[in-house]
Structures are given as structure tokens and as C-alpha cells.
């Protein structure tokens, strides 16, 4: 209640600055380094792996890096799903990666057909394109399911987002995706180096959050990701992009020392987005989890437990067969219930 009143009284950028000043300075010093280095990948649960890999490789030009199948007690404890057998395909676009995860057993539930962009289970990856017109035409030719009515150019009055073009659509399972084009004065310098490909890489993953203060305490103060930018987006372009009437968002971008960023999307209006169901599990197709990299998984898990973060994993998994490319890992949930896997590589 206090946090919501605070937002009404103070401007958004001032609040973020005050949070950084009041919360970050005492916690981040030479004695308290960040718990995580950055985002390694985003894992997405899919219902049909062959269909999913065809879509991401043929339509979005991702390359397959690995394809493994795992089962057993360790993975049950990692994901909180009993009797698990998973097929996991890692795919790469540019320097960034995703992991597609099919639960061969047990099967989970499909994505709710009435999902909206302001529901808090929303999580997408933003794929940078070199030419929005070419990318949109290619997606139309491949008959993707559109969320946006078409590409939207954000207005110039928006200092931090003006001139950016974006478009929302869905993969075959209904997972939300975004393509985004950055003008020369926006985005990372890497997105302006080469224009010989249409699909370049992943700039960030975006998640809907209810309370930006609680989210920043988790991602920024506790985990150590840094606030990179903030913007307040509203107007007809944002409504058409998100397909949410009256959409008014406060967006905070976070980054680590490497990998894609994380964008926290807080809807000021409308406030009718639904929370993540308390019984959502990793085998449900709506499930996605952000994979973060740390130096010491055991110590990181201890600090998160001390901070009363909710754990999905019963313990830190020691990856004895190394099929999934990490030494140790565990899964927690952020204040809104978004799954976060933390890996020691």
C-alpha cells in the first residue's frame, strides 16, 4: 500500500533514483559483490519440440547448438516436477541463446487461450532486427499469429524510447515474442555494426511485474543487476503494440556484465492483469525461466534463503553428467512468481 502511494506522489525516474540511492549504496560495496553476472539464456517450455525447433530455426534463423534428453531424481528436484523426462534444445542467434524444453513426461497444461500482455505470466524475448519492414514481411509470409496490429514506431516525445520500432507476435505454442529495431541513437552499439542479416540477436527478456519496488529489491539489490534505463510508455502506439487498450507502462531495464538484459514492465493501466497461478509448474507450456549465471551456486543459494526468496528446487543440483552445461544449479521465483534458474558454470 505504501509503495503504491509512493508511486502516485513521486515521478517514476525520481523513484528509481531514490531506490538506487537508498537501497543499493548500503548493499553493494567491495565486500558485497553482485550475486549474479548476467543472463545466460531464457528457457521456454514447448509442447512439440520438432515444431518449435523448426519455427525458431527456419523462421527466426536461430542455430541449434545442442539437443539432449535428461531424466531422474536430480532433475525432479531441480524443476519441482515428479517423474520428469525432458528434451532440451539450446539454440543461438548472434551471441545470445534460448533453451526450448519439452516435457516428454509428465505433460503440462497449454497456455491460456485468453492470455494478454498485461497478465503477469507474460514473458517474452526481444529479437533485434536490422530492417523492420523486411522482418515483418517475412513473419507475415510465415503466417505468424500477430499480437500487435503491425509494427509500431514509438513517438519522439518519449526520450528513452522514441524512434524505436517494435512488433509483438507468438510462436506456435502461443509464447509471446517481440522483434525490435533500434535507430542509431538507441540500443547497444553492437546492433549497429552489421546489417547483412535481418535477425541479429536477443536484446532482452521482458516480464510483467506488479510492484516495481519489490522487483528491484530482488533483481537489483539482492542479485546485483544494474539499472540501465527507465521509460514511461503510453499512447496509441503502445496500445497497438501490446494489444492492451489504455496501456500505460513504466519500464525499467536491468543488465549484468554480459548477456541480454531484463526489462521489468509495470502496468499503471489497466490494472486487471492476472497473477501467475500458484500451481504453475515448469512442465506447463506457459512456463519460462530466466537463466542467470553466478560464481558460487551454493553460496548464492544460501544468501537467497537468508533473504526468504521462494525456492522451487529442493536443493542445489550438482550436475554430475554435465549434459546441460553447468556445474550446479537451482531454481527460485521472483516476487511475482517468475521462475529464475541460477547456474554455476
Total number of helices: 8
Which spans of ≥5 residues are poorly predicted at pLDDT below 50?
1-9, 20-31
- Secondary-structure element series: HHEHEHEEEHEEEEEHEHEEEHEEEE
- Which bin fits the share of residues in helices? 10-25%
- The CATH architecture of the largest domain comes to Roll
- Span of the ends, CA to CA: 40 Å
Provide the residue-averaged pLDDT.
91
Beta-strand proportion: 35-45%
Characterize the structure shown.
The protein is 23% helix and 35% strand. With 345 residues, it is an alpha+beta fold. It folds into two domains: 36-110 and 276-344, 2,3-Dihydroxybiphenyl 1,2-Dioxygenase, domain 1, CATH 3.10.180; 123-269, 2,3-Dihydroxybiphenyl 1,2-Dioxygenase, domain 1, CATH 3.10.180.10. The strands form two sheets. Strands 1, 2, 3, 4, 14, 15, 16, 17 and 18 form a nine-stranded mixed beta sheet that branches. Strands 5, 6, 7, 8, 9, 10, 11, 12 and 13 form a nine-stranded mixed beta sheet that branches. The longest helix has 16 residues, at 12-27. The radius of gyration is 19 Å and the shape is globular.
Amino acid at each position: 500500500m505504501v509503495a503504491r502511494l509512493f508511486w502516485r506522489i513521486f515521478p517514476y525516474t525520481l523513484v528509481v533514483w531514490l531506490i538506487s540511492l537508498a537501497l543499493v549504496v548500503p548493499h553493494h560495496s567491495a565486500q558485497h559483490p553482485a550475486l549474479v553476472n548476467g543472463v545466460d539464456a531464457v528457457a521456454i517450455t514447448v509442447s512439440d519440440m520438432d515444431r518449435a525447433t523448426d519455427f525458431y530455426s527456419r523462421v527466426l534463423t536461430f542455430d541449434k547448438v545442442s539437443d539432449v534428453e535428461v531424466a531422474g531424481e536430480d532433475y525432479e528436484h531441480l524443476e519441482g516436477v515428479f517423474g520428469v523426462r525432458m528434451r532440451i534444445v539450446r539454440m543461438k542467434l548472434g551471441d545470445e541463446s534460448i533453451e526450448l524444453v519439452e516435457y516428454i513426461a509428465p505433460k503440462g497444461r497449454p497456455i491460456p487461450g485468453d492470455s494478454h500482455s498485461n497478465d503477469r505470466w507474460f514473458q517474452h524475448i526481444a529479437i533485434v532486427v536490422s530492417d523492420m519492414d523486411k522482418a515483418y514481411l517475412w513473419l507475415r509470409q510465415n503466417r505468424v499469429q500477430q499480437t500487435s496490429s503491425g509494427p509500431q514506431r514509438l513517438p519522439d516525445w518519449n526520450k528513452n524510447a522514441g524512434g524505436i520500432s517494435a512488433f509483438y507476435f507468438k510462436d506456435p505454442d502461443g509464447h509471446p515474442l517481440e522483434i525490435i529495431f533500434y535507430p542509431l541513437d538507441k540500443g547497444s552499439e553492437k546492433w549497429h555494426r552489421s546489417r547483412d542479416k535481418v535477425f541479429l540477436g536477443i536484446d532482452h527478456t521482458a516480464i510483467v511485474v506488479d510492484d516495481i519496488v519489490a522487483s528491484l529489491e530482488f533483481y537489483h539489490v539482492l542479485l546485483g543487476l544494474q539499472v540501465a534505463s527507465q521509460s514511461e510508455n503510453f499512447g496509441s502506439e503502445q496500445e497497438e503494440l501490446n494489444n492492451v487498450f489504455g496501456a500505460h507502462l513504466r519500464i525499467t531495464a536491468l543488465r549484468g556484465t554480459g548477456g541480454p538484459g531484463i526489462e521489468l514492465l509495470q502496468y499503471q493501466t489497466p490494472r486487471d492483469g492476472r497473477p501467475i497461478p500458484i500451481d504453475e509448474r515448469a512442465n506447463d507450456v506457459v512456463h519460462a525461466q530466466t537463466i542467470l549465471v553466478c560464481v558460487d551456486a551454493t553460496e548464492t543459494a544460501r544468501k537467497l534463503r537468508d533473504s526468504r526468496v521462494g525456492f522451487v528446487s529442493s536443493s542445489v543440483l550438482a550436475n554430475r553428467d554435465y549434459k546441460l552445461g553447468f556445474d550446479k544449479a537451482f531454481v527460485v521465483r521472483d516476487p511475482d512468481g517468475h521462475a529464475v534458474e541460477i547456474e554455476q558454470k
